[in-house]
Amino acid sequence: MHPAQQRVAFEELLAHQISLRLLRQQIRQANTFELKQEDNRLTSRFLKNLPFKLTGAQKRVLAEINQDLDRNVPMLRLVQGDVGSGKTVVAALSAIRVINAGYQVALMAPTELLADQHYFNLHQWLDKLGIPVILLTGKLKPAARRQVNEQVLSGQALLVVGTHALFQEATGFGRLGLVIIDEQHRFGVHQRLSLLEKGNEGDRSPHQLVMTATPIPRTLAMSLFAELDVSVI
């Protein structure tokens, strides 16, 4: 309650906000990959195979993501929604569009359990479309890990699901077009950037989609994640 404490707290929040705004400005100055959506057959097949129909909120958030992917600047979007709200389905549809344009997608989760869950769901959905999904976590033995890294670097692995192993120095990507990060508050800004940098080609940077199930009031989300646009399912 002391004015001096309030002043220190204000200055810390202000410095945080300004640093994220500068980061946003820096990323927005970069170009990104052109994602032409000329063939929607993969998306149509994916939706047809789903045992449910998309909700209105899922369609709205997907439309916001597609608008971002249509631009020539990297997407920076936070998708917020409760557990079971369908964030993974939206992420899968976003990944399909990027893969259809000839680029790779990386999905990073904070724990091996969560990475396993994402891998199971995405493999079930995308295997029917002929899209290979690969899991890269710390529990892989060295030989298996080298094999996965070779597939990722060559571009053979179109969708890579993993943990912190994704941004390790040994992991390189052939054509990384989209980075999806689940429960991003479990990762630092520098960790996210180190994964994004693996997709840099000259002045072009990958798109970024961040997901969280942590309920955050919209005004607080705009402050905590000032570099991101916010969508709510």
Explain how this protein is built.
Helices cover 46% and strands 15% of the residues. With 233 residues, the protein is an alpha/beta fold. Strands 3-4-2-5-6-1-7 form a seven-stranded parallel β-sheet, sandwiched between helices. Helix 7 links the parallel strand 5 (176-182) and strand 6 (207-212). The radius of gyration is 18 Å and the shape is globular. It starts with a helix and ends with a strand.
Please specify the SSE layout and strand pairing.
Layout (H helix, E strand, L loop, with lengths): L2 H26 L12 H9 L6 H15 L5 E5 L6 H14 L3 E5 L3 H15 L6 E4 L5 H13 L4 E4 L13 E7 L6 H8 L10 E6 L5 H7 L4 E4 L1
Parallel strand pairs: 1-6, 1-7, 2-4, 2-5, 3-4, 5-6
Brief synopsis:
The protein has 233 residues and is an alpha/beta fold. The protein has helices spanning 3-28, 41-49, 56-70, 87-100, 112-126, 142-154, 189-196, 218-224; strands at 76-80, 104-108, 133-136, 159-162, 176-182, 207-212, 229-232.
What percentage of the residues does DSSP assign to strands (E)?
15-25%
Largest sheet: 7 strands, parallel
Total count of helical runs of at least 4 residues: 8
Secondary-structure element order, as H and E?
A: HHHEHEHEHEEHEHE
The parts where pLDDT drops under 50 for at least 5 residues are none
Counting DSSP E segments of at least 2 residues, the number of strands comes to: 7
Compute the average pLDDT. 83
Task: Strand order, main sheet: write it out.
Answer: 3-4-2-5-6-1-7
Overall 3D form: globular
* Cα gyration radius (Å): 18 Å
SSE class: alpha/beta
| C-alpha end-to-end distance | 36 Å
User: Helix coverage percent of residues?
Assistant: 40-55%
